[in-house]
Amino acid sequence: MLDNPAKPLVSVRDMKMHFPIYAGLLRRRVGEVKAVDGLTFDVMEGETLGLVGESGCGKSTAGRAVLRLYDITGGQIEIDGREIGDTPQSQLRSMRPTMQMVFQDPQASLNPRMTVEAIIREPLDEHTTLTPMEKREKVAELMDAVGLNRKFASRYPHAFSGGQRQRIGIARALALNPKFIVCDEPIAALDVSIQAQVVNLLEDLQEKFGLTYLFISHDLSMVRHIATRVAVMYLGKIVELAERETLFAAPLHPYTKALLSAVPEPDPSLSRNTNRIILQGDVPSPSNPPQGCNFCTRCPAVMDICKQVEPEYREVKPRQFAACHLYNET
Question: Taking the CB of residue 65, how many other CB atoms lie within 10 A of it?
Answer without folding.
Answer: 25
